[in-house]
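Proteins fold reproducibly. Next comes a concrete instance:

***
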Amino acid sequence: MSETTVELANVHSTAKRMVLGVIGLGVAVFPIWDLWPGFASLSLVSPVFWIIGLGAAGIGMALLAAAIFGPSVVLRIGPEGIVLHHESPLRRSANRLPPEALGPIRVERHEWSEGPATWRVTVGLKGSKPLVSEDFRDPAGAEQLAARLASALGRSV
């Protein structure tokens, strides 16, 4: 990576994926294990146990799916444009956005109904929604990121 390239990453480590998967399995299996007598006996209240079990299994499977399929995203921004690397344990892909496909770089203030305002950096994309950075508590951090991005793309903010 050269000095003119900016790299922004949202990487999910193997440990984080394993913890999320174990929690998902626990959430899915424990209620069924604990409430097994209610599942096994057929009575008027059995559907209540089935609903609880199905709800827990649904939430647990969603956590397990996030552990398996949740992508890590790395953005490399440089004179050649933006390269988005998506990586999960089952799939890898890269999308390239040439400089011609990029719109203006802006620092935008975001007002919240509760709490202080935050700032974020957006990079416009022609024909699509803009790329949005994480929120910054002060405008100086957002302006610094915007300046780094503009410098990497050979533009002005």
